[in-house]
Structures
1.
Amino acid sequence: MELLPQALTGNSYPGRGVLWCRTVDGSALGAYFLTGRSAASQARTLHLTSDGELIVAPSQPGEHDHLRHYVAARQVGAQVVFGNGEQVSTVADRLVSGQAPLLALDGLDYEPDPPIFTPRLTVIAEGEGSGRAWFGAARHSVGDRAATNRLTLHVSDLAPGEGVLMTTYRTNEDGIATGAPFTEVTSTARNRTDLLDELWSALPPGLRIAAAVFAPGELSGADLRQKTR
């Protein structure tokens, strides 16, 4: 497995990302991060609302853009749902209605932003120390086929220092492409604070916007890091 910092520093533009990780102290934690190249992408903040949701919002009052502004994480009982778009609210609502995680992640589509067609990445993570999580990725085919490829990954029994990472983008010899389906990583982070430090320092300094680390069932206590403006 690749070290988490190396997996990120080796990717000059990871875009948005989700991480499920068990730190050295045994804590099972979720993380979400934002990087951006355009001025509009950079003009965003990540903050907790009074309702306990983690929101990606414009840094200045302005028109809502459903591809850039959305609920990034929502608590559903002892579970937390997090991801890179408006599908987070859809999946959370499905869980509230009683659907199982696999069904709640079904039927999602990639973002309508040609030519790259950004994947929609979603994680449902369980609380109470179980360490179980379900990843969902809605991806465009590498060819011309328009139908969505849907990947579901069930992760359990992570050992301390192990994690799973998904990013929307990766950099290759042809420029920016959609990210790998998933990457298994290792982390030396001892606790939540260390994990946020490790994640933040590995993001491209000129592109990073915000990052958050949180435990399922404790989203209101998320640790946040923002770019200084």
Note: Helices lie at 4-9, 39-42, 87-96, 101-104, 192-202.
2.
Amino acid sequence: MNSINLKKLISVLVLAVTFTACVQDDDFKTPPLSIDEPNIDGIVIGVDAVLGILAQEVADEGEDAKVTFEDTNNYVEGYVVSNDKAGNFFEEFVIQDSAENPSGGLRVLIDVNPLFTTYEFGRKIFIKLDGLSVGIENGVATLGVLSGDEVDKIPSFSQNDFIQRSAEVADITPLEITMADFSDDLTNLYIKINNVQFNRNDVLGDNPLTFAGEPSDEFDGERNLESCDSGAIAVLSTSTFADFKGLTLPTQQGSFEGILTKNFFGDTFNLVLNDPTGLVFDNENRCDPNVLECDGTSGGANVVFEEDFTGLSISDLENSGWLNVNTTGGSLDYIVGSFSGNQYAQISGFNSGESPFEVWLVTPEIDLTASTAEELSFDIQANFDNGNILTAFITDNFTGDVTTTEWSQLDATIPNGNPNGFGSFESVGPVNISCVEGNVRIAFRYAGADPGPTTRYHIDNIEISGN
């Protein structure tokens, strides 16, 4: 090789190394390739048609029914509304039937990662249905290949056999809904919910929560989003593999944009972000409830009231003046539970089928006329936590009916628990109640829905002390 050619080769190598060093691995984008509109040699049907076929099979065979497409020559068309770039989706994407005002969506499983470089947000695609199956997996309509009695991932080597890209990349307009609108028909759609915030217990304390970076987060972090319009609660689920899992939750209120889906078990609606930009929390004015604020010091050596539930049944409590009231007409109520000899008040809406439910546990009348500087404390164990739905109240004017009584919410931070099992008892308080006088009652309101937030709570060691 002569010296001129050697110099050229060295120059090319230097340029190549310099160019490569300037490119960040995580900055790659979809190559600007020219895509021709595919020639679909078959019948194009909508997502709603696929969902309708599945609904007929489910009506005949039950929720585990699957539909396998054979010799239909059908293709389903849809727009991609998920994005796995931030790691919050893995080997799956979500399509809906139209770029705006969608009415149906499908989750598509495929053994390919990443997907956003090929099926970016807004890309219109066509999926050949013959050879694929659709069924309800994790509570939502899912398309893939049948493996045993489950819908599984399309193999990577079959990707191009089944999926074709359109030249169209649409601007997706999120479907604006409220939490009250949640239904199976709206799952797998790109939605927007306005006027929401994270629970104050999660973001305003000394240790605000991250999206999914807490020691108790396994597979997913589940955080409560509250509606400032209705007070309803929804669960935001974030994968522990998401690259934003360690970010702290925003303290403001604003809007959510993302996918409505369900949790792994398919029994609770979940909200999932494509990335953190789906939360536009730009309103500094939170909508937290007004809580009782008593000035001055509190606490003393005298126990005014206490209850540890030892040796008692729920009927014993009711006979001694406690109230156990379901205000939504269902049968769900508090019971006395026990573990390793310890007893406590217990409630769980799981498998109750009540949606919504609201259950109150109210103490007997407590006389504070002979004491001062009172404060309240109690212990809480939160278990299978999928939403913070317990609230403590006080009143000095009980009407005999929890729905007509004027209650003051206590500034009591209810602890979060293990989303996948039993938590540990944690102390709540002391809460200063010294500005409430006379005969008072303390209440614990449990309000959620099944399906929806159904966290199981154990309440123990309720105590009021003072001078």
Note: Residues 3-21 form the longest helix (19 residues).
